Amino acid sequence: MSFNIVTLPGDGVGPEVTQQAVIVLKAAAVKYGFELKFTDALIGGAAIDATGVPLPDETVALCKASDGVLLGAVGGPKWDALPGDKKPEKGLLQIRAALELFANLRPAIVHAPLRSASPLKDELLGDGLDIMIVRELTGGIYFGDRGREGNSAYDTERYSISEVTRIGRVAFELAQKRGGRLCSVDKANVLESSRLWREVIVGLSPEYPDVELTHMYVDNAAMQLVRAPRQFDVIVTSNMFGDILSDEASQITGSIGMLPSASFGSGKLGLYEPIHGSAPDIAGRGVANPIAAILSAALMLRYSLDLPDAADGIEAAVAKALEDGLRTADIAQSGSAYVRTEDMGRAIAEAI
Question: What fold does the segment set 1-114+256-352 form as a domain?
Fold first, then answer.
């Protein structure tokens, strides 16, 4: 079996963590008997510097022809002065739209060796925490009409029945494979778009009788994530609400450097990326945590390449590295020794 993978290292720590993910993927390929062909392409600030735009047409074409896309990170202060439609982050929105990636999966898992890194009290974590947030990715306020009129500005939240239906099905099907519980998060007491959202999700529920459906307003959900996080299994929500809640959930785990994400459309092709940003303050210092990028690569093997054993192998190797006491700077206890980015990547590859 041979697969074509496009890597989009991007900016900041993106190239560093992507490099380690590729090293781990190559180790998994040898162990589990498949072949990966990697092609680098430009996105974000790196693309702006080279081509003048945050997402070149060549990158889009390469991604569409690939079996999976692995992204590092985009953005940085170097490009802050650019107008909004020219910033590196615009490239990320554009690639999601170009590949029609409407569903974003963001797991929030507290790894047993890192329980002490979580800011939550131990009793709130119980015997473990494993939440999956399903975020709608190509609709809502991030893609609605926007502009300025005189001394005011506006952004428009809009959702169609079809958009909510397709993300709802993804969430229900994930809940079926997990704990059988789905919480739909909205603001239906205030927003008309949320009222439509809730109506559609409720309408889908009879098709999934084995899934317990509940609803929660987004402000309460933000509170409940830190008050009683174990009540959640799968959360489905809109683009902006999902952006905020998934970042909050990431902090429950102790480090944003630990968490992967996967974005899908209607086919197998997916975009896989760590949820952390480009972290320009530590770029080039070799101290970034590559685990989120490595776990994103594992998600790619599982969801796009149909290689669950290899994905399990990578995840087990990450767990072994943590159990062996290896820590990058972000997850090391204050004053404790830590390993560099490439040391963590090498240890995980060797564990495979």
Answer: Isopropylmalate Dehydrogenase (3.40.718)
Question: Does residue 247 carry a catalytic annotation?
Answer: yes
* Catalytic residue (one of 26, 78, 247, 338): 247
Per the annotation, the verdict on 187 as an active-site residue is: yes
Annotated active-site residue 142? The verdict is yes
The model's pTM: 0.86
Q: Which residue has the tokens 């720590």?
A: 13
Give me the catalytic one of 233, 243, 272, 330.
243
**Domain boundaries, given as residue ranges, for the chain:** 1-114+256-352, 119-252
Q: In the chain, which ranges are continuous DSSP H helix?
A: 14-32, 44-51, 57-64, 88-98, 122-125, 161-177, 192-204, 218-227, 239-252, 291-303, 308-323, 341-351
What is the Cα–Cα distance from 203 to 280, expressed in whole angstroms? 45
Establish whether 127 is a catalytic residue.
no
Per-residue pLDDT of the chain (352 residues; tens, 9 = 90+): 899 999 999 999 999 999 999 999 999 999 999 999 999 999 999 999 999 999 999 999 999 999 999 999 999 999 998 988 899 999 998 999 899 999 999 998 887 777 777 777 777 776 778 899 999 998 999 989 999 999 999 999 999 999 999 999 999 999 999 999 999 999 999 999 999 999 999 999 999 999 999 999 999 999 999 898 889 999 999 999 999 998 888 878 777 778 899 999 988 999 999 988 999 999 999 999 999 999 999 999 999 999 999 999 999 999 999 999 999 988 887 777 899 999 999 999 999 9
The active-site residue, picked from 40, 57, 219, 281, is 219
Q: What are phi and psi of 124, to 5 degrees?
A: -75, -25
**Catalytic pick from 32, 142, 217, 338?**
142
Question: What architecture is the 119-252 domain classified under in CATH?
Answer: 3-Layer(aba) Sandwich (3.40)
Same fold, 1-114+256-352 and 119-252: yes
243 is catalytic: yes
